[in-house]
Amino acid sequence: xARDGTLNRxxxxxxxxASVVLAGLxxxxxxxxxxxxxPMEREPQMRVLLHEGPKLLLRADKEQWMQVRGLxxxxxxxxxxxxxxxxxxxxxxxDGRRRRLSSATVLTVQNDDPRGIWLDSRRYRGEFQISCxxxxxxxxxxxxxxxxxxxxxxxxxxHHWPLAALKAQAVAARTYALRQRSxxxxxxxxxxxxxxxxxxxxxxxxxxxxxVADTRSLVLVHRGKLINAxxxxxxxxxxxxxxxxxxxxxxxxxxxxxHDQHSPVHRWQERFGSQGLxxxxxxxxxxxxxxxxxRSASGRVRQxxxxxxxxxxVLTGRELRQRLDLKSxxxxxxxxxxxxxxxxxxxxxxxxxxxxTSGSRSRIDRVTASVASxxxxxxxxxxxxxxxxxxxxxxRPMRSRSFRFxxxxxxxxxxxxxxxxxxxxxxxxxxxxxxxxxxGAHGLAGQGADFRTILRHYYRGADVLPFQPHYDPALAWLPxxxxxxxx
Length: 487
Fold this sequence. Notes:
Blueprint: H1 2-41, E1 45-53, E2 55-59, E3 66-69, E4 75-78, E5 80-86, E6 89-94, E7 97-102, E8 107-110, E9 117-119, E10 122-124, E11 127-133, E12 136-144, H2 145-156, H3 163-180, E13 189-190, H4 206-214, E14 218-222, E15 225-226, E16 231-232, H5 242-245, E17 268-272, H6 274-280, E18 289-295, E19 301-308, E20 311-316, H7 317-324, E21 331-337, E22 347-358, E23 361-374, E24 421-427, E25 436-437, H8 438-446, H9 451-458, E26 463-466
Parallel strand pairs: 1-13, 16-25
Antiparallel strand pairs: 1-12, 2-5, 2-9, 3-4, 3-8, 5-6, 6-7, 8-11, 9-10, 11-12, 14-15, 14-26, 17-24, 18-19, 19-20, 21-24, 22-23
Helix pairs in contact: 2-3, 2-4, 3-4, 3-8, 3-9
C-alpha cells in the first residue's frame, strides 16, 4: 500500500508538471498566433501626403507632448518642432536653438493626444513621417483608413447632408483610397482634390463618424476587384462615360441621368475679357471664334478649334477647360459686347446644331443657342460647393464639355477687333462628370434612396460588399483571419 501511494503521488506530480508545460506551450502558441493575426485584423493603414514645401511647424495641443524619433538616439519629447530646408540640409528649431540636420534625416512624430497634432493651421490624427525630397520637406500622415475617412467624408460633403449621401460618400472614398494603396513614392494619396480632400480633425463630426462606422469595411467591387470609384460635385444633369474623359472605358463608369437639378452649380456663367483671353490663349492672341469638332454622347466637348488674331488652335475639351479654368466642359460660349452691364442669367438653352459630315463621320458641330427662360437660383448653403477629385495619375480635374461660340467679326479684312468683346460662358455642372455626382447623391437621398441604391445608380454593375484581401492586389497574399477589419 505504501508503494502504491508513492506511485500515485509520483504520477500526480508528473501530471501537474506536464499540465504546466502544456499550458505554457499553449499560451506561447496563442501569443504567437495573436502576434501574427494582429496585423491582419488591424484596419488598413493609409499614407496621406499632407505637405511639400520649404518649411513647416508641428506642435502639440496645450500641455501635451510630441514624441519625436530621428533627432539622435532615443526619443525627444517636444511641444513644438519647426523645420526649414536650407541649402542641402534641414534646419530644426528646438527649444529656441537651431540645429542643422542631414537632408537624409527621417523623423517620426506622434503623441497620445486624441486631439491629434497641429501641422501649421490644421490638426491631424495618427503619425507623421517627415523627410526631405528634392529640396522640399515632405510630411506624410499615417493612420487607419476608418479614421482617415471620418475626415474625408466631412471634407468632401457638408456634414448636415442626409446620412444616406454621407454613407455613399464613405463607401466611394474607402474604395478609392484602398485602390491607391502601395502605389510607391512613399505615400498613397494626397490630401487635396488631386486624390480626395482630407482636412484633418476639424472636418470630423458626429454625422461623418456615423456614416463611416455604419459602412465599416464596405467597398465597391466589380468582377472581384475594387472599382475606380471616382466622383465629382455636379454633372449638370447627366454623368459622363469614363472613356469620353480618359483613355479607358470602364464597364461600371457609364453615362447615367443625374439628380442634381437643385445644385447651385447646375447652371452657372462666367465672363472673360479680351485681356484675360490673350493671357490664357497666347497662341491665338485671344478668341474670336470656336468650332466644336467632336462631342460626347452627353454633349460634352471632346475637341474644339479656336480662332483669334494670331491664328487658330485645336484643343481637347479637357485642355480648353484647363486653359479657361472652367467649372465643367458642358458649356456654351457667346461673344458679347463689353459695354453690356449684365449678361443674361443662366437659363435653359435651346440648341440648333448644324453638322458637316464626311461620309458617316461627323467633323464639325456648330451650335447656336438662345435663351429660353431664366432659371431660379438654388437657395442652398455655400459650404456645399464641392470640388471632386480626379482619378489617379491625372492632373487637374476637368469640369464639363459642351462648347460653342457666336463671334462677331469686323467688316475690315484685317485682324478682327476683339478688344471690345467679352466671352460669355454658360455652363452646367462642376467636375469631370464621371462616377458619382455628390449633388446627385444628395438629391437621391432626399427622395428616400439608401446609400446602396445611390451607389448602384452611379456605378453600374458594381456590388457593395465587405472588403476581402483578394479585392486588393497589394493584400492578396494575406490569409483570411477568423475575425478582422473586413468582417
